[in-house]
């Protein structure tokens, strides 16, 4: 059973509103629902539509890790870290650095 938030966002998407922010919101909602597979799909789209959205890369890594795809998660976080550093997004770059360290243990 999806959250109301997710249903609302899915309606927007179905109506033809497709952008990185919407996909990010959907990915986030899916992750909260415990639906990592759907989250990964939406977040993958978000990063394609806006490759410099560091938070989308961060969540994509989380979704991929939840699916047991550690290598893909690492790749997403590496890319996200690169983007976050360029954007001056200190918070995201710190978080992804921590995630990567944990992953490589």
Automatic annotation (TrEMBL):
Pfam families per record: TPR_19
The record's listing under SUPFAM superfamilies reads: TPR-like (SSF48452)
Record's InterPro entries? TPR-like_helical_dom_sf, TPR_rpt
The protein depicted here goes by the name Tetratricopeptide repeat protein
């Amino acid at each position: 059973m999806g959250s109301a938030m997710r249903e609302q966002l899915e309606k927007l998407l179905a109506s033809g509103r497709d952008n990185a922010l919407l996909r990010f919101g959907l990915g986030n909602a899916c992750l909260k629902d415990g639906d990592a597979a759907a989250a990964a799909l939406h977040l993958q789209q978000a990063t394609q539509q806006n490759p410099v959205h560091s938070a989308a890369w961060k969540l994509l890594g989380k979704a991929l890790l939840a699916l047991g795809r550690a290598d893909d998660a690492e790749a997403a976080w590496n890319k996200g870290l690169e983007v976050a550093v360029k954007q001056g997004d200190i918070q995201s770059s710190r978080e992804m650095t921590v995630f990567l360290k944990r992953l490589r243990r």
